[in-house]
Amino acid sequence: MKIALIGYGKMGKTIEEIAILRGYEIVLKIDVNNESDFTYQNLSKADIAIEFTSPESAVFNLKKCFDYGIPVVCGSTGWLEHWNEINNYCEQKNGAFFYASNFSIGVNIFFELNKKLAALMNGRQEYDVAIEEIHHTQKKDAPSGTGITLAEGIIENLPSKNKWVSGEAFNSNELCIISKRIDPAPGTHLVTYTSTIDDIEIKHTAHSRKGFAEGAVAAAEFIHNKKGIFSMEDLLKH
């Protein structure tokens, strides 16, 4: 499998290491220093693209991959107000698209545990719930995509919460997400249910970017030669 890396920061470099170890070839690397190389001629050398950039550039990059007929795995966060637009564009172009707010297998197991706990807490009015997420200072979006996914999982299963807010919650229906940026943290997510009697916590701590990179490469393997829109749920069921 030949891979184009759209975004060649720390995550892109870690993905490159994992891909090469698995016997794959990196045929294109795009970052802010060589954006002019992001052409059909160069991208057509790849079987698949893996996109980890910024909220400002992700939508443009994804559409370009769809235009060029290249399946794309995306780990950029902070752009989901364009989610329907991107899904529709992918379908119009008969493309292949795999998105996850977090590609770590461990985090995706954590997502399912979070949903289950929220369902168990339904009706337990004595508890309030909050999310805290910690990342390195170079992370541009806050809350993190993972934090938002956790919040959405709680809201789906806990009727007392119907919206999330960044920072302190002032209404009982609001779920607060506290974002901290501390180097060199690669990612910590904590969900806490608090009452006057006790606290219940579930926590995921990433020790490195390797888990995210391995998941992204696994996603690339999964959508190779496929058409459609996919998520980590599809990969984990595979």
As laid out across the biggest beta sheet, the strand order is: 2-1-3-4-5-11
Q: Would you list the SSEs in sequence order as H and E?
A: EHEHEHEHEHEHEEEEHEH
In what range is the share of β-strand residues?
15-25%
Count of β-strands? 11
The radius of gyration computed from the alpha-carbon positions, rounded to a whole number of angstroms, is 19 Å
Q: Which class best fits the helix and strand makeup?
A: alpha/beta
Low-pLDDT stretches are none
Q: Could you name the CATH homologous superfamily of the largest domain?
A: NAD(P)-binding Rossmann-like Domain
Mean pLDDT equals 94
User: Looking at CATH, which topology of the largest domain would you report?
Assistant: Rossmann fold
Instruction: Please give the alpha-carbon distance between the first and last residues.
Output: 19 Å
Helix run count = 8
Please give the largest β-sheet: 6 strands, parallel
Comma- or semicolon-separated keywords:
single chain; 238 residues; alpha/beta; Rossmann fold; Dihydrodipicolinate Reductase, domain 2; 2 domains; six-stranded parallel β-sheet; five-stranded mixed β-sheet; 8 helices; 11 strands; elongated
